[in-house]
Design goal:
188 residues; six-stranded parallel beta sheet; 8 helices; 8 strands; globular
């Protein structure tokens, strides 16, 4: 298993020019890694919507990689988005799911059915071109360059340690970020 910030730091270092969409408990560490200002939007206060926002960006900017930093609890709330994403066959969408088995943002409740479902199998059954699970930071470092070469949509399940502390929030207004992202994408 990986620490969330460790996984975030690896993704930040390997991001390149990808547009990023973070949700819930990945927002604060993504900002801590210095990734919240350029080609980024937080899917805040819309739990479960990061993958759908990422899909829209991937369709609008097919020449740019889009990475979604999703939570397993968040994705579970909008499980149908897997089928929608697969149906669009977006080759530039990379869906990172931080799997810790918790609805962390709402008080660390266990996910319903934890241990009985498989994110990789669900993504493949939905029609994702690729899906894989990474359990250790060293494997993420090694495999990330190969992941960026895969044709999407790709789901990457990251095994993340449980964090039982209080939720952390970056506090950046989504509307402001969306306007800035649009400005950045139009100018490139």
């Amino acid at each position: 298993m990986m620490d969330r910030q460790e996984a975030i730091d690896i993704l930040a270092e390997g991001r390149g020019q990808a547009v990023s969409v973070a949700t819930m408990q990945s927002i604060f560490p993504w900002h801590q890694a210095g990734q919240g200002e350029t080609f980024h939007v937080d899917a805040s206060q819309c739990m479960g919507s990061a993958s759908s926002i990422g899909l829209g960006l991937a369709m609008a900017k097919p020449d740019r990689k889009v990475m979604v930093l999703d939570g397993d609890g968040s994705l579970l709330m909008q499980l149908g988005s897997l089928v929608t994403i697969a149906g669009q066959s977006t080759p530039n969408l990379y869906h990172f799911v931080f799997a810790n088995g918790l609805h962390q943002s709402t008080g660390n409740q266990d996910l319903p059915g934890i241990g009985k479902f498989d994110w990789v199998a669900l993504a493949k059954a939905a029609g994702y071109r690729q899906a894989l699970k990474i359990e250790a930071a060293e494997d993420l470092i090694e495999r990330l360059p190969q992941i960026w070469q895969m044709e999407g949509p790709v789901l990457i399940e990251l095994s993340i340690d449980r964090e039982l502390g209080e939720p952390r929030w970056a506090g950046v207004p989504m509307a402001k970020q969306t306007a800035l992202l649009r400005e950045q994408l139009v100018s490139t």
